[in-house]
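Researcher: Following up on the earlier apo prediction. This time include the ligand. It's NAP, with the SMILES given after the sequence.
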Amino acid sequence: MNVGQRLLCTSPAELPAFRIEAMPVPQPGKGQVVVRVEAAAVNPIDVKRAGGYGQRLLTLRGAGRFPLVLGNDIAGVVEAVGPAVTSWRPGDRVFGLVPTGKNGAYATHVAVDARWLRPFVAGHDAHALTAFPYTFTTLWQSLRKAGISEANARGCEVLVHGASGGLGRLAIQLLRRWGAIVTAICATQNVEVCKSLGATGVWDRKRQPLSGLPQCYDAALNFGAWQDEETLIAALKPGALGMATTVHPLLPNFDKHGWVGGAWRTRRDFQRVRALATAKGARYGWVVFKPEEEALDALHRLLSEGALKLPVGIAVPFANARQAFDHVAWQRPGRALLLPPVVCRR
Ligand SMILES: NC(=O)c1ccc[n+]([C@@H]2O[C@H](COP(=O)([O-])OP(=O)(O)OC[C@H]3O[C@@H](n4cnc5c(N)ncnc54)[C@H](OP(=O)(O)O)[C@@H]3O)[C@@H](O)[C@H]2O)c1
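Model: Understood. Below is the ligand-bound prediction.
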């Protein structure tokens, strides 16, 4: 038997506990590819899930019960392809998405649907590429929910909350490329980075309350904090395109209030806030990440054109996973990566 390894998050805790475990190298099923993973990313959702966040609802995807293999982003080399896969061959270098489920990205080998992979981009290595897929796909879905596209973005005033984070940085770069005028909301220490990425205006949330924002925006993206949702909607102008948020209470509602209470509160929260957006004529949506081919195609194209940057702040082996999780939890600059051990095949 060929033996690989995976990183298990053993139980929900504020200080995540990990164990490295041997596992059989997976066989690719129909439409699947087995990738030997060179790097996997740690996103804020992994840190939250390591603390027990989202357990109830994610159980529906087989992703709620500990021990968990976390992670949604990979870059590496194709080792084997399953029946009906024509797009990849062993030896191809790829990066892409692992859907949220029972088996995440933190393993030496991952079996993944061939549709969620894209070829390496010239000038980028595994580390650089792994930082993008989950975050870019979520951004792509956020823009669609907010009604913003390449076709209509030019000249639009877009407010981005959480602009200095991964989603926010990609939003600034893409929206600027599409000709939108971006106002970034961030903390004092991140003002310069938001400007350098192309934000026209920056609102320092530590120095100026968001309630002072002018009501002039065509669209808003909330990647910062749910408690600011209503204030951001208030900043939309009448007839605005829309607003999307990734920091909604869907998962915590079910964690805290159970199936019935969670469903009831989620409906109530969503409808209350959507009504505020609708009163402005704007569309409104909550984003729930899911793999998407269109987003991956767009990501590949934009990376090939050198249009996106997302620096890596730390890359550590599985044995030092806590360091990478702390890096994300403390919002240190740059994305965090985990590097699986290199295993010998027998
Ligand atoms: N729903 C989904 O499917 C989905 C998918 C991806 C991500 N997300 C969530 O979306 C959020 C952003 O993701 P990300 O990868 O961009 O995270 P990130 O890299 O950690 O960036 C988040 C940014 O939000 C700002 N922020 C932090 N705490 C804040 C607060 N209390 N009030 C206002 N702003 C605050 C910080 O910038 P400043 O301090 O400079 O303001 C930080 O840089 C995370 O919460 C993540 O879990 C959800």
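Model: Residues 43-45, 135, 138, 162, 164-168, 186-187, 190, 205, 223-225, 246-247, 287-289, 331 surround NAP (CB under 6 Å).
Researcher: Noted. I'll compare it with the apo version next.
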